[in-house]
Specification:
The chain is an alpha+beta fold and about 220 residues long. It contains eight helices and five strands.
């Protein structure tokens, strides 16, 4: 139960707000000036044995037609434990315990990001291998077996994300906040089911170009 003092305080800070007000909202305007230098190396501790690696490039917003197909490419490239980055840089090379890529979507901008921590002496080698995996996706078609594995993973993730009312309402929240209808949900499933190796290659050729990426290593 709330005490009278609690009620007074709640009313003081929240009682006068018009929570359902639908008036005009301010439109934010800002100018983006891309950093000219794309390779940054920062030494924070001379005695460190590990480095943090961040790589990123601008990417279209969630409303762009390439966004959902790119989820498929991202998953295959570095978006889950069986990804190519994990297989190469963690399992084969042993440079890191984990490496991930992701699509970062904000209200006014978006980015494609790769993140990992590696031994200080192999940070540059890790970045070299990341670009190598990009080039492979650009020049070689992914085989059906690997693509089917990623499709099943994403479709299974959707199914898991509908387990319970809280998960369902979270999905509705995402649709509403991004201005989508429920049809977006069904369209995404169809894209996951039907995407082809040729489409994956075309996306890689467009969005996985070394020259477009910013690199940051902090040791």
């Amino acid at each position: 139960m709330f005490s009278e003092e609690d009620k007074k305080m709640i009313n003081q800070y929240f009682g006068s707000g018009h929570w359902n007000h639908q008036g005009a909202q301010a439109s934010l305007q800002y100018n983006v000036e891309p950093e000219k230098e794309k390779k940054h190396r920062i030494i924070h501790d001379e005695k460190s044995v590990q480095g943090s690696i961040r790589m990123a490039r601008p990417f279209p917003m969630k409303t762009h037609p390439d966004f959902v197909p790119m989820i498929m490419l991202n998953t295959l490239f570095g978006g889950y434990f069986g990804s190519r980055l994990m297989s190469n840089i963690r399992e084969d090379k042993g440079y890191t315990y984990g490496i991930h890529s992701m699509l970062l979507n904000q209200k006014f901008d978006s980015a494609f990001i790769i993140t990992t921590e590696a031994g200080k002496d192999v940070c540059e080698l890790a970045i070299k291998e990341i670009y190598k995996e990009m080039a492979l996706l650009q020049h070689e078609l992914v085989n059906d077996e690997e693509l089917d594995l990623v499709k099943n993973y994403l479709l299974g993730s959707i199914l898991g994300g509908l387990d319970g009312s809280f998960h369902i309402i979270q999905r509705w929240k995402s649709l509403i906040l991004n201005g989508f209808t429920e049809q977006r949900f069904y369209n995404n499933i169809e894209i996951y089911k039907t995407i082809t190796p040729a489409k994956i290659q075309a996306l890689a050729q467009q969005y996985l170009n070394e020259a477009d990426f910013y690199e940051l290593i902090v040791t």
